């Protein structure tokens, strides 16, 4: 017999011996029976997944476990997400108070699962479950009496005691602070959104102020809402409205007010003034001349919108004479603006509106 034949025979015998050894090992049999789990106190779980039971978000649940061939060492529980092993938490307790998250508005559906673990580490393969919708009876609120605004003005310094609807100097910095409460739980945080921000900004429970810098001209709005321990958010959002850029303030100087009515049939002009009083009677068709003063905290007043009993002229001067403020449509030459008739018992309004360098128009003119 050649060397190669002996090698093949040895290999065959070795394989047979190895196969014989494998047949001699008995198969492993797991005789440890898994434990069972029962939720013993809590709302009855809904059998209809489309119609879960209602459950207040803060619930006290009880459970127990049984193991026929050993003892229960503890329990593993999870809420909603069971695909991630880290979502299961271990406890040796047989009851606990849970705070289940609710929706921002209204109830939120949940699935609570719990499984017993025996003394050999085997766990219940079919955990007991509780399907429900958690709800909160009261959403958290921002207390409007505890909202405050402080401004740092470029020229006026620190201004305290501001409230929603107030005006600050343009390019001021403001700090808005707030507080709130939750009737059926407690507040865990806050959210704010400034003007057209796309996302809400989260604030920890102790962070109850937000600073806004260099306010551009116009209306600015900071929206504030609270978040409670159930995840519910304020159903009514508190909005702080701050106007940046004060209006110009203009004052007609009635001591300079003068009305002139030409009377060609008499060869003269009727002149009233200078100096009139409010509610005086002026002749129809007269031209008006007057002066005014104007101030603005935020910057210079650059022009004025006038109503002196006729069409509204616009000027950059501090005095006007309506004898030259109009235009003859036929010639394009200056023409008088004359007083119009009125049947109103209160008479014609005479006013001047200042317009500042930022195009902010005086909203409450002197009349």
Descriptive notes:
The chain is mostly beta strands and 367 residues long. The protein folds into three domains: 36-135, Immunoglobulins (Immunoglobulin-like); 141-244, Sandwich (Immunoglobulin-like); 249-356, no CATH class. 6% of the residues lie in helices and 45% in strands. It has one helix and 28 strands. It has one helix spanning 3-24; strands at 36-41, 53-56, 58-66, 72-79, 89-91, 95-99, 108-118, 128-135, 141-142, 148-153, 157-162, 167-168, 173-177, 180-181, 187-194, 201-204, 209-212, 218-228, 238-244, 249-263, 268-272, 287-295, 301-308, 314-315, 319-321, 326-327, 334-335, 350-356. The strands form eight sheets. The protein has a five-stranded mixed beta sheet, with no helix packed on it. A five-stranded mixed beta sheet has the order 12-19-18-15-16, with no helix packed on it. It has a four-stranded antiparallel beta sheet with strand order 11-10-13-17, with no helix packed on it. The longest helix is centred in the N-terminal third of the chain and has 22 residues, at 3-24. The radius of gyration is 42 Å and the shape is rod-shaped. It starts with a helix and ends in an 11-residue tail after the last strand. The model is unreliable at 3-19 (pLDDT under 50).
Helix and strand pattern: HEEEEEEEEEEEEEEEEEEEEEEEEEEEE
Structural class: mainly beta
Distance between the ends: 132 Å
Strand order of the largest sheet: 2-8-7-4-5
């Amino acid at each position: 017999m050649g060397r190669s034949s002996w090698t093949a025979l040895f290999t065959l015998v070795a394989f047979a011996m190895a196969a014989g050894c494998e047949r001699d090992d008995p198969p492993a049999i797991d005789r440890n029976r898994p434990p069972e789990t029962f939720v013993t106190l809590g709302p009855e779980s809904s059998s209809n997944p489309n119609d879960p039971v209602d459950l207040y978000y803060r619930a006290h649940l009880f459970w127990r476990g049984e193991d026929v061939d050993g003892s229960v060492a503890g329990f593993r529980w999870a809420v909603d997400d069971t695909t991630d092993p880290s979502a299961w938490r271990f406890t040796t307790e047989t009851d606990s108070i849970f705070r289940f998250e609710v929706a921002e508005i209204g109830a939120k559906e949940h699935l609570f699962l719990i499984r017993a673990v025996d003394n050999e580490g085997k766990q219940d393969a079919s955990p007991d479950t509780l399907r429900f919708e958690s709800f909160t009876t009261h959403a958290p609120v921002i207390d409007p009496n505890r909202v405050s605004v402080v401004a740092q003005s470029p020229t006026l310094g620190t201004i305290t005691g501001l409230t929603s609807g107030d005006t600050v100097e343009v390019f001021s910095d403001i700090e808005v602070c707030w507080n709130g409460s939750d009737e059926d739980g407690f507040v865990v945080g806050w959210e704010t959104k400034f003007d057209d921000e796309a996302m809400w900004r989260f604030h920890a429970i102790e962070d109850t102020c937000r600073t806004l810098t260099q306010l551009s001209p116009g209306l600015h709005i900071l929206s504030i809402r609270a978040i409670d321990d159930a995840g519910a958010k304020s159903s009514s959002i508190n909005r702080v409205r701050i106007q940046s850029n004060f209006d110009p303030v203009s004052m007609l100087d009635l001591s300079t007010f003068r009305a002139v009515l030409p009377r060609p049939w008499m060869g003269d002009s009727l002149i009233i003034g200078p100096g009139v009083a409010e509610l005086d009677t002026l002749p129809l068709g007269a031209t008006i001349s007057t002066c005014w003063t104007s101030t603005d905290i935020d910057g210079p007043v650059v022009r004025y919108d006038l109503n002196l009993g006729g069409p509204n002229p616009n000027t950059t001067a501090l005095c006007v004479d309506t004898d030259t403020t109009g235009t003859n449509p036929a010639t394009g030459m200056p023409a008088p603006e004359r007083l119009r008739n009125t049947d109103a018992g209160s008479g014609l309004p005479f006013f001047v509106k200042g317009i500042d360098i930022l195009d902010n128009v005086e909203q409450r003119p002197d009349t």
